[in-house]
Amino acid sequence: MSVLAVSNLAKRYRRGGEPFAAVDDVSFEIEQAETLALAGPSGSGKSTIARLVLRLIGPDAGRIDFEGHDFLALSGAALRARRARLQMVFQDPLAAFNPRATVARVLDDPLRMHNIASRTERPRHIAALLQRVGLDAGLAARAIHEISGGQRQRVAIARAIATRPSLIVLDEAVSALDVSVRGQILELLLDLQRQERIAYLFISHDLGVIRAIAHRVVILDAGRVAESGDARTVIANPQSAIGKALVAATPRLIRNRP
Amino acid sequence: MTALLSIRDLSVRYRRDGVEVQALKGIGLGVLAGERLAIIGESGSGKSTLALAVAGLLARGARIDGTIDWQASQFQTPRSVTPPSVLPDISPARGEIGSSVGGPPSATWEIGESGDDGLISPLAGEMSGRTEGGAKDRQRLPPTNNTPVSGRDIGFVFQDPSSSLDPVMPVGKQIAEVARTHLDLNWQAANAKSKTLLDRVRLPEATLHAYPHQLSGGQKQRVAIAAAIAAGPRLLIADEATSALDTIVQAEIVSLIRRLVAEDGMTLLFISHDIALAATLADRIAVLRHGELIELGETRQIVEAPRHAYTRALLDAHLGLDAKPLLDRQGASA
Amino acid sequence: MNRLRRFFRSPEAIAGALILALLMMMALAAPLLFPGDPQAIAGPALLPPFQDWPLPLGTDRLGRDVLAELFHGARTSLAVGLAAAAAALLIGAVVGTSAGFAGGLVDEVLMRITDAFQTVPSFLLALAFVSIVGPSLGVVVAAIALGAWTGPARVARAEVLSIRERDYVAGARVIGMHPLEIAFREVLPNALPPVLALSSVIVAAAILTEAALSFLGLGDPNRVTWGGMIAEGRTVLRTAPFLSIVPGVALVLTVLGVYLAGEGVVESTAVRRSLS
Predict the structure, then answer these.
(1) Which of A33, A35, A41 sits opposite B248 (nearest CB)?
(2) How distant is the alpha carbon of residue B118 from its chain centre?
(3) Beta carbons within 8 Å of C21's beta carbon, 6+ residues apart
(4) Which of C191, C163, C167 is nearest to A96 (CA)?
(5) What stretches of chain B adopt beta strand conformation (E)?
């Protein structure tokens, strides 16, 4: 059974008075411990799909089944409880946290909200989470704006795994990071996936990154699925016009490898 | 080749949240006339500070030591540039802020106390090409001589075109304004120039009357480029100009920059965090790390035979379409 | 620390802070320096200032010590001004945050109520309220707050509208935080700075409104107020103008001090914001 099944999803907006389809009849599934990448140029609907899946916005049509249940049917407390299983990591880890927050508070919130640990146990849980993502437990007392971008993204991942989710949506989660840090974060994600069997919906415009981490890819263009399939196969031999354009536009580094 | 710019022993310090940050440490670098030089580095490497220093756009309060020689003047005897580390130090006033009375004879553009002007304020001068007078000519030379005027001699393209364009002015007028200011044109000629420039950056004529919010990110960046080259600068600086764009638009902007630089014989300073992207465009690559220039060389040499371990690490960290997927390296599979 | 230094760099801010400090000391020292009832008769009626050492500012029509009244009046002005402003800011912040965060019908209803309050002149509102309920310190505070909360509500709503689109609010929803907690724990604290920037204007206006109500005889009759003192002095304005001038000058200086100090705070935080 798939963790997430999205079928015929549609979302329309009005732009300059005229309606346009941000997401148009999009369907895909993600299995347990699988990474599905959504690729496409800006405006192709990648981020809208992420927000729809997370129920930050409502769709105009379509169905979202999460862990075998109709996710769109949930509301109020039931929805908030289910959210524990479906987490997100944003592109800009600074914007993704309350500017006044400390690392401890950021990690304390999900534990408190979903009664994962009692008040007295939480500091121990927070320390364990920090260590899980390769950070020093002493970082807990620091303010979010004091730590580096890479550390912040690790904290974001720690927050996402705090509630033991089955699916994490990663919206351009490594795009703002330095290349050296990016590699480490990708390794961390893979490591978590292997151990916790978490599925990822990995949104990126960078085919190089997608090829490195994703099992399958869905290439979007103007809100519609242009093509989909095994990530390496699609990227090696794209069939759609947009797929070909994306591959052609990706900078190549031609090196004489020893 | 002639050096357009030689940077000697450039150090920049500024205070942030009460802590002094050394953004650049003794950078020595020659930029050859007509070349495409990429400056690459990760965040905090000082690459943007270097770009701003060259354009004279460093924020108020930055402390600058060293010299930037601008040799664009036709009166200047061409001088070949030896590797930066052994460049002769001809500037008597080197490293002394504001003490250039009777300083170097002509070619040296003495920077110091950039606080006087050249500030990128939130309201004024954010638009590339509209910021004037990065560094004051302290020797009161006629402005036609050796001091580059940002906007006229140096075109600057910022990362975020939305914040470098005036949201309430039609873009055609914004470009015309640059042309009018620096080329001494009347409005009519400037508007005609603006139309030509839009055509050169491959935007339809109707864009003249569009406001920035009506344009896409790539179109806005094209407008910013048109404004940057409006006055026919010798040097074009693109500071992460494609980083906020998606891959396809990025490739288009890069090829646009390549074409414009070739057509006008401009020198290009391409600031980027992406070594692969830089390699597709640049003749030479300079690698910065923690404010220091750690390697400078021909693109081919940098990519194929990097001398510095850090450069090699940057190359290895690149995830290209031919790299071995991380999934396999770890042996993980669904 | 930096902010404090920046605050004290501006001479206006220093002047404002000095005036406020003086006022604060007057208010605190009043019961110590003038332990008795300031409304008790202390000497002959209408004694001019600087005539009698124990009564340096003279006496009013009933022979009450003007200096004692001035000190005790500072207590009332300050208490009413601060309490009314605090109440107005609290109501405004809650209404504005609720409207901005909830959106839709809630927003519509709350903002129309805000409009209604804003269209009635706030002084008339206070006047009507006190006339109906009857004058007492609490009622005066409520009456002034009633006319002053709309400004903070509008500013808070505008700020919340922009903040609620930020990633971290989406992040709070994703981890399953309750909307009320998001609104008041995540959003409101970050929307507060521009709302608090209004406080100096509101405090100054509240002090003036209190004085005006007292002047019209709608202040708390059991307390000395500057407005009441001016009203008292009005009947003998030709023969003893100092009775109106002394509290009048105190009032002007206080409002000026509050305003200057408030501007200083806003300036110093504004610089800080633009730097970051």
Answers:
(1) A41
(2) 15
(3) none
(4) C167
(5) 3-16, 19-32, 36-40, 63-70, 108-110, 154-157, 235-239, 267-272, 284-289, 292-298
Q: What is the pLDDT of residues C111-150, one digit of tens each?
A: 999 999 999 888 999 999 999 998 888 999 999 999 999 9
C-alpha distance from A28 to closest chain B C-alpha (Å): 17
Domain-located, residue C181: yes
Distance of alpha carbon A57 from alpha carbon A160, whole angstroms: 19
pLDDT digits (tens, 9 = 90+) for B83-124: 333 333 333 333 333 333 333 333 445 444 443 333 333 333
Chain C residues with CB under 8 Å of A84 CB are 175-176
Which phi and psi (to 5°) does residue B113 adopt? 50, 55
From chain A, pick out residues whose CB is under 8 angstroms from the CB of B274.
179, 251
Q: What is the token pair recorded at B9?
A: 């022993």
Q: How far apart are CA A80 and CA B79, in angstroms?
A: 70
Residue B62 · residue B97 · CB < 8 Å = no
d(CA C50, CA C47): 9
Interchain contact C192–A (C-beta under 8 A): no
Contact C168 A97 (CB under 8 A): yes
Which of A179, A215, A245 comes nearest B318 by C-beta?
Answer: A179
- Chain B CB contacts of A258 under 8 Å are none
**Of C202, C72, C83, which Cα lies nearest the Cα of C150?**
C202
- pLDDT digit string, tens, across residues B148-186: 777 778 999 998 888 889 999 999 999 999 888 888 888
How far apart are the C-alpha atoms of A49 and A57, rounded to whole Å? 9
**How far apart, in whole angstroms, are the C-alpha atoms of residue B61 and residue B11?**
14
* CATH number of the domain that residue C179 is part of: 1.10.3720.10
* Assembly ipTM: 0.89
Q: Please tell me the distance from the alpha carbon of residue C244 to that of residue B298, in angstroms, as a whole number.
A: 85
For the beta carbon of residue B324, count every other beta carbon within 10 angstroms: 10
**Identity at C54, one-letter amino acid code:** P
The number of domains in chain A is 1
Give residue C231's domain range.
2-29+66-275
Q: How many CA atoms lie within 13 A of A23 on its CB side?
A: 26
In this structure, is residue A254 part of a structural domain?
no
pLDDT of residue C269: 67
* Count of domains forming chain C: 1
Within a domain: residue C34? no
Tokens of C157: 């709503």
What b/e string do you get for B131-144 counting C-beta neighbours within 10 Å, with b at 16 or more?
A: bbbbbbbbbeeeee
Enumerate the residues of chain C whose CB falls inside 8 A of the CB of residue A51: 170
Residue A102 one-letter amino acid:
T
Domain that holds residue A21: 4-249
Q: Is residue C187 part of a domain?
A: yes
Q: Please check whether residue B175 is in contact with residue B220, taking contact to mean a CB–CB distance below 8 angstroms.
A: no
| Contact at CB, C190 and A87, closer than 8 angstroms | no
Placement of tokens 């981890």 in the chain: C175
Asked whether residue C56 is domain-assigned, the answer is: no
Ordered by where they begin, the domains of chain B are: 36-61+120-323 (3.40.50.300)
Alpha-carbon distance B58 to B115, whole Å? 8
Minimum-distance CB partner of A253 among B245, B320, B332:
B320
Q: Is B38 on the interface with A (CB under 8 A)?
A: no
Q: What is the CATH number of the domain that holds A239?
A: 3.40.50.300
The answer to whether B279 and B302 have CB atoms below 8 angstroms apart is yes
